Task: structure prediction
Amino acid sequence: MKLHQLQIELEIRNRQLQENYDQLRKLEGLQDNLTHMIVHDMRSPLMGITGYLNLLEMDAGHKLNSEELMFLNNARSGGVVLMDMVNSLLDISRLEQGQMPLNVTKTDLDVQIRDALNSLGSLTKQVSLLYQKQALPVMVNCDANLVTRVIANLMGNAIKFTPEGGKVAISLERQGEGAKLCVADAGYGISPEYHAKIFEKFEQLETRQKKAIHSTGLGLTFCKLAVEAHGGEIGVESEVDKGSTFWFTLPAKKQG
Result:
């Protein structure tokens, strides 16, 4: 009798847990939809702001003194950062829902590395960059635009966390018919407990040397989803005081 009663109570609790879980998923879905709508609606006015600031500099830049030009450039830079965040959020949402089609072509990864470095502009001058082009092209099937953005994100983070003048190294190797790309920095390193969390949206990590909290933002989340959309893997190897190496693989072709 007692066993039967316990089974009934267990079934009731299981149903309650399932109902609570379903309700939570529903609320999370509503929250994601609201966030996506707000972020999508932010893109047009932000494009307008940055566009008008560009026009202002072209038409009236010569009338401004150095301090006023600095204010204008700072405002424009802030707008560009916000645009990047908006685009990243939208791309992450599309990747999470499997709604971002890949434009897969046979691609030379050396070209993507060069394009990524060029997109970082003067930022690359803050560190000593080490990269040796492969004797033979490393060709993979991938979406060249997405992979370039992944490399640029990893390079940007490496530069950000490396002291000025430090070394950042990019390496590329074949893996069967696929490839593995690594970005190693000379930063403060990442504690083991953050190695998995660091790819989550808006995750924060602490650098013990500076006793500071740094947000990893959206870049690594985008990288993870973009690499996994290709059927590849991404990860980090790091020790405190010994820098970090972020890596990702691309298979010969997308799996599944």
